[in-house]
Write a structure and sequence with these properties.
There is one protein chain. The protein is of the alpha/beta class. The chain folds into two domains: 121 residues, Urease, subunit C, domain 1 (Roll); 280 residues, TIM Barrel (Alpha-Beta Barrel). Strands 7, 8, 9, 10, 11, 12, 13 and 14 form an eight-stranded parallel beta sheet that branches. A six-stranded mixed beta sheet has the order 3-2-1-4-15-16. The chain is globular, with a radius of gyration of 21 Å. Bound molecules: zinc ion. The site of zinc ion has 4 residues, from loops.
Amino acid sequence: MSLLVTGIGELVTNAGSPEAARAGDAPEGGASAGVERAAYRGDPVTRLGLVPDAALVVDDGRVAWIGPAAAAPAADRAIDLGGRAVLPGFVDSHSHVVYAGDRVAEFTARMTGQRYDGGGIATTMAATRAASDEELRGLLAARITEFRAQGTSVVEIKSGYGLTVADEARALRLAAEVTSETTFLGAHVVPPEARGDRAAYVDLVTGPMLAACAPYARWIDVFCEPASPYAFTGEEARTVLTAGMGAGLLPRVHGNQLGHGPGVQVAVEVGAASVDHCTFLADADVAALADAAGTTVATLLPGVEFSTRSPYPDARRLLDAGVVVALATDCNPGTCNSSSMPLMVALAVREMGMSPAEAVWSATAGGAAALRRSDVGRLVVGAAADLCVLDAPTHAHLAYRPGVPLARLLDVSEHSSAR
Ligand SMILES: [Zn+2]
């Protein structure tokens, strides 16, 4: 049953031009990395492929037609959005949302300037290990509902709070029930019980844990951060990623968050889809990311700096060098407990020097590139009909009206009563 969506005041297609959106080029999704450097270096507003006074036809969950409202074809059903802006559903390419418990006491202590040794990730690890499957499944479902209520249609979910073979496999099994973008992060930190023998823990991660987790995961990730005694060195990261790739997983990296380090270089070297955080970068790191722009995305997570009162990454430096930039939440119980992509867009504009157009692209098409998806993050013929509706006339209102609940996903299913 087809659905005609009219009354779209401004349609963000991310196709580079309205003509390209109508022609369509995203039928299958999947493996193509998806960012052409020439198009990416162009004007950020042009890249959004804006269609004013637009209409769009959805058929079988896919975009079937895009164009000016005046030329719209007939469909089985129709809804009128009354001049609202529509953009692709946000693609949040970085989250850690399979966990139990919270760390609000740790957050409060940090914000009140008190010393607090709450144990960080170990606290969440203990609560997560103690939770039943049903508890974790319920918590995860509530979080996914929260993402969707704010316009996010694709969420990547990492393991990393189990850190035993059984607990990591369980986290990924549960995550795979709600997303196809699952990431094995057994190398999140060395857990307390393994700190006497790091090499043995890396052997566990790359051996039995990888074997148990690979069936439920698409990606392998590692927290490469020599500045932290509990995270992993460049050499350990290379070992973890290489093993994961050998098991058929695709690499991505947490790097350069707390200080300068080898994360970016390792990510580029193994052809990672994304290196995430990128707060402390040497000129050579920026140059390497610019050279790898068709392969490796720099994913910035400004909610972390916001939530920890830390300096933001320099998005302007990356963009001006031609690096492909994505925005994601890093939603997690410790350093950023926000599932709000609109907040990340507002922070990117206000705190990291991105224009509204750049931030909206990075939160949609950028996230898709970081997940090597061409079927999401764009509204072109053949793409997934993930429509994020704003209670506002243009995409710029996302940053202009921070904290206001403007974004939601449009239910295009057959049984919905339109809006
Ligand atoms: Zn993270």
